[in-house]
Specification:
The complex is a heterodimer of chains A (about 800) and B (about 170). Chain A has about 800 residues and is of the alpha/beta class. Chain A is built from 25 helices and 23 strands. In chain A, α8 (about 355-375) runs antiparallel to α9 and α21 crosses α24 (about 790-805). Chain B folds into 2 domains: about 1-75, RNA polymerase Rpb7-like, N-terminal domain (Dna Ligase, domain 1, 2-Layer Sandwich), CATH 3.30.1490; about 85-170, Nucleic acid-binding proteins (OB fold (Dihydrolipoamide Acetyltransferase, E2P)), CATH 2.40.50.140. Helix content of chain B is about 10%, strand content about 50%. The radius of gyration of chain B is 22 Å and the shape is elongated. The chains are: A alpha/beta (about 800), B mainly beta (about 170). Chains A and B meet through β10 and α1 of A and β7, β11 and β12 of B.
Chain lengths: ~800, ~170
């Protein structure tokens, strides 16, 4: 080690003598050399006066480390003006591994310090790199060495590291004692699903520290999954549960410890209770690490992360170890349960509606979670609070038995609905009656996850092999001949590709070119760009746009009949899909076909089918104006969106709307509409016409949208848009002006139907008001200013619809009137 | 090293325990609280006998009685240079974690004989010289303590097996 003079000395100093020769042993605090410095001091002259005098003080310089002198960098007589290197000392021990404040190699106390201490011994080794012990710290060099060895070994066996989360990723745990009762009760409707639930007791946990039983449900296919994945990855557990909890889980999922060994990191050793940190396990580099977790936020959306959809077996329980984590953002996976149920299960069995069950659970713990989510860091008071909160959650579960409550609710519902028929049924029939069961066991996530991990593994080693053959091959190989062949078996760590680059590459392909708009998914006021689901989608290459534009490819609608859904029907290339589509895409890492996920537009929005004649009429009359409008739309919107696209880190060109894509979109749309299309040619005009027909038809669905909801939605949407509205208002007015030509054509083409609907909008109180075209148009243009976008095309759509089916259904009309009036 | 040490402890007793069984109760309390305790300097292994229980003194204002108990206990104070037997709790590339009774001892890689190598590919991972010496979780080791560092309620120690007659038993 090279010693350097501290800046605190009284410079300039003059070296007067060196006390040690190279080769001499030196101890800490032993004098190395003498020097003198000059300074002015005040002295008494013996007469009561104080005078300032210059004095020279000889001082010795003491070594701050032990060791053997290698070489002096200064000589006797040197005058030193500022800090320089003085001597090189060879230390017998660099204290690179420390255990509990002691050097693990020489046994010296590292926490000792005195006047001469420059760097505290413990600063030399600060990295905790062992999973299950925090007392052991190592230096950066040592960590790098250990990690390099590990990487070498992994590359030789062609494996990567996989960090696995426990709760809601591969298992689901609860402490609700109801589980045990159900499990033992063969007649219980939930018995089937609970048969393979594991249980264990933790003594130092739970209310009153009396020991608390935990019930663990493994995610379906877990055993096989771990078995397969362990061949490709070295597995690590990283959980926010306690050490004892993690050990117990490991005993269940890996009794022989073949898979995880003792690579288990729990919150006791994590160092942070609010976030997980990959550096805790891989301090030097994370090139070969993949993470699977159900929470992206705790990893700060680390690029190594594969987010899996949470495993929610015990409905409403959530993650029992999440009290320490920031509050979870619900992303509408709740929809999953009912959707699957409908598809997979016979209709006699009802299931608890996830959507209704979830919010309840959310309310129950929300106060608690809010308390918890406020803080973070290592504040001991907060920590105590959080621990308390955790205990309370557990206590709450043990005492209130949320599962039992849910089941009761469910059965009460059932009884209510089946009451009439049940009166005559006697008790003997009870067991036969299909009772509702709360717990479902049809999760497929792990099977998909396995595919994805394999995919990452393959791409990683393809890249690695490519790099390696490039490095070894060519001229070098020719020149070196055999030597290279032998080296080929070894590993070169410089050639290791980075998972952080490979995984995003794969992921970005999935939703590349997709521009999403959310509607009814995120609560109003949330930052659409930084919500969990948005970040997740963005990591797959999707672009999140705040509002619908011609670039938009998908509208992800959380619920039906929002203003954006209606707006989206105007754009033929926008597919209106449920949230489930997005979630499935993200879960499966593939651009899932939209077909099954298309949002069924509300029946009220659906008009009567086209008659061929009227349809053609509609096309011919609409084509001209609509074409123009669409054209201008394109150019106008382009600029505004440019920033957004750039900010999302995507090239504008990559989302270009080229002919092929257009055709594909067109085809899909047609398939969706199931239109028995007539003259289909590839020429541009007929294509456009067709597209228009499609849009026309789509619009018709929205025709009967109820007035009340409509207004509400409009306000919501306007809020969204208010920031950009100002500059575009004029454009919109212009556009609506252009459209009005089309409208007039329509108006003249038909008779009473148009007028009626138009007047209904203009004067909601008069259901049968007879207004001339001109006033209707006037009212419309007035509206167009106040509600720039929605109001006028609402009107447009209604007029068109009325025009398209001349024989307007009087009943539907009455409905509208009632709703509006 | 083990010592027989005389110590005193003050136990405060709630009035509800006053009765014919006070003595038994005090012994139970003493055993529960003292045995297995780590003072940061030594471990109390076993309370041997009561030298003197003394008379209880009722504290004013609370009614509790304070007993000053003198007792003898076997304690263990680990010393630098002491040789102990320990059981391996886990092996890591950086070294071996062991438990010598209540004391956790870490053996750094440098303090393991150079012929005993880290072998991560076995299940469970182990240190081995590819002959008869295998160190894995559960192995008994004889080691020499290189350093002891007291903490608030624990003692950490580091050890070595890089000397004659040390290593797996």
């Amino acid at each position: 080690m090279l010693l350097r003079l501290p800046p605190s000395l009284h410079y300039p100093i003059t070296v007067t003598s060196l006390l040690k020769k190279p080769g001499d042993a030196v101890e800490r605090d032993e004098a190395l050399f003498w020097y003198v410095y000059e300074t002015t001091v005040s002295e008494g002259d013996g007469l009561g006066n104080r005078i300032e005098v210059e004095r020279r003080f000889p001082t010795r310089f003491e070594s701050t480390v032990d060791g053997e002198i290698v070489q002096w960098k200064i000589a006797k007589g040197d005058i030193i003006d500022d800090p320089v290197d003085i001597v090189e000392i060879d230390e017998p021990c660099a204290h690179e591994i420390q255990f509990g404040g002691m050097c693990a190699e020489c046994g010296k106390d590292m926490t000792e310090y005195n006047y001469n201490t420059e760097i505290l011994g413990t600063e030399r080794a600060t990295i905790k790199m062992v999973h299950d012990n925090t007392a052991l710290t190592v230096s950066k060099n040592e960590a790098a060495r250990v990690e390099e060895d590990a990487k070498r070994r992994l590359l030789e066996s062609r494996r990567l590291s996989l960090v696995v989360d426990l709760d809601q990723t591969i298992i689901h745990a609860t402490v609700d004692p109801t589980v045990k009762e159900w499990k033992e009760d063969k007649d219980n409707p939930n018995h089937q699903a609970l048969r393979d639930v594991h249980e264990f007791q933790l003594i130092d946990d739970g209310p009153g520290m009396r020991g608390c039983w935990y019930y663990i449900k493994l995610r379906p296919g877990l055993e096989e999954f771990l078995e397969k994945v362990a061949q490709l990855f070295e597995l690590h557990i990283y959980t926010m549960g306690t050490r004892a909890y993690a050990q117990q889980i490991a005993n269940i999922i890996d009794p022989t410890r073949k898979l995880f060994g003792d690579r288990i990191l729990s919150r006791d050793e994590s160092g942070s209770l609010t976030a997980k940190n990959l550096q805790r396990l891989f301090p030097v580099d994370t090139k070969m690490v993949v993470i699977i977790d159900d929470r992206g936020d705790v990893w700060r959306w680390n690029p190594n992360l594969i987010k899996v959809s949470p495993y929610d077996f015990f409905v409403g329980i959530g993650d029992i170890n999440s009290s320490f984590l920031p509050k979870k953002q619900d992303i509408g996976e709740t929809n999953k349960v009912p959707v699957k149920v409908i598809k997979e299960k016979p209709p006699t069995e009802h299931h608890v509606n996830g959507a209704s069950a979830k919010p309840e659970a959310g309310n129950e713990v929300s106060a608690l979670e809010q308390l918890v989510s406020m803080g973070g860091g290592d504040n001991p008071i907060l920590l105590k609070e959080q621990t308390h909160a955790q205990e309370e959650t557990i206590l709450h579960q043990v005492e209130d038995r949320p599962l039992l409550q849910k089941q009761k609710e469910l059965e009460a519902e059932d009884d209510g609905s089946a009451e009439s028929s049940e009166d005559s049924v006697d008790e003997s029939q009870e067991p036969i009656k299909p009772r509702h069961h709360l717990l479902e066991d049809h999760d497929r996530e792990l099977y998909q996850l396995q595919d994805r991990l394999e995919q990452v593994h393959i791409s990683f080693f393809e890249e690695y092999d490519k790099k390696r053959s490039r490095a070894l091959g060519g001229r070098v190989a020719e020149l070196k001949g055999e030597k290279v062949a032998s080296r080929g078996k070894g590993v070169d760590l410089r050639l290791v590709p980075d998972v952080k680059e490979i995984m995003p590459q794969i992921k970005r392909r999935v939703l590349g070119g997709v521009v999403l708009v959310f509607s009814g998914v995120l609560p109003l006021g949330t930052d659409t760009q930084n919500a969990d689901i948005s970040l997740w989608a963005k990591s797959f290459g999707a672009v999140i746009a705040p509002k619908i534009s011609p670039r938009t490819t998908h509208l992800v609608a959380g619920r039906n009949r929002t203003a954006k859904v209606r707006e989206a029907t105007r754009y033929p290339n926008v597919k209106i899909v449920t949230t489930q589509w997005l979630v499935d895409c993200l879960a499966q890492w593939s651009h899932v076909g939209e077909g099954p996920y298309l949002l069924p537009v509300h029946p009220d929005d659906r008009g009567e089918p086209f008659s061929p004649g009227s349809r053609e009429l509609a096309e011919s009359s609409w084509l001209s104006s609509e074409d123009e409008a669409a054209g201008s739309l394109w150019t106008e919107e382009e600029e505004g969106n440019e920033d957004l696209f750039r900010s999302s880190g995507l090239e504008t060109s990559s989302i270009g709307y080229d002919a092929d894509e257009q055709a594909a979109v067109h085809d899909e749309l047609k398939e969706f509409l199931g239109s028995d299309d007539e003259s289909e040619s590839d020429s541009e005009t007929s294509f456009l016409a067709d597209e228009n027909a499609g849009s026309g038809k789509k619009r018709k669905r929205d025709e009967g949208a109820s007035g009340g909801e409509n207004d509400e939605e409009t306000v919501e949407d306007d809020e969204d848009e208010s920031d950009i509205a100002g500059s575009r208002l004029s454009q919109r007015i212009k556009r609506s002006y252009e459209r009005s030509t089309g409208l007039r054509e329509v108006a003249t083409a038909t008779s009473s139907g148009t007028d009626e609907t138009a007047s209904e909008r203009a004067l909601p109180s008069g259901p049968e008001g007879e207004e001339p075209d001109a006033s209707a148009a006037g009212a419309r243009s007035g509206l167009a200013v106040s509600y720039p976008e929605d109001e006028d095309d609402e009107l447009e759509r209604e007029m068109l619809a009325a025009f398209e089916d001349g024989d307007y259904d009087p009943k539907a009309e009455e409905d509208i009137a009632a709703e509006n009036g | 090293m083990f010592f027989l040490k005389e110590e005193t402890k003050v136990i405060s007793l709630h009035p509800s325990y006053f009765g014919p069984n006070v003595r038994e109760y005090l012994i139970t309390r003493l055993n529960e609280e003292e045995e297995g305790r780590c003072t940061g300097d030594h471990f109390v292994i076993c309370v041997m006998d009561m030298v003197d229980i003394g008379e209880g003194r009722v504290m004013p204002s609370s009614g509790h009685a304070e007993y000053t108990i003198k007792y003898r206990a076997i304690i263990w104070k680990p010393f630098r240079g002491e040789t102990v037997d320990a059981i391996v709790t886990s092996v890591k590339p950086t070294g071996i974690f062991t438990l010598a009774g209540p004391l956790s001892v870490f053996i750094a890689r440098k303090n393991i004989p150079s012929d005993i190598k880290w072998e991560p590919n076995t299940v469970p991972p182990q240190y081995t010289d590819h002959a008869d010496q295998v160190i894995e979780k559960g192995t008994s080791l004889r080691l020499k303590i290189l350093g002891v560092k007291p903490d608030v309620a624990a003692i950490n120690a580091i050890g070595t097996i890089k000397e004659d007659y040390l290593g797996p038993l």
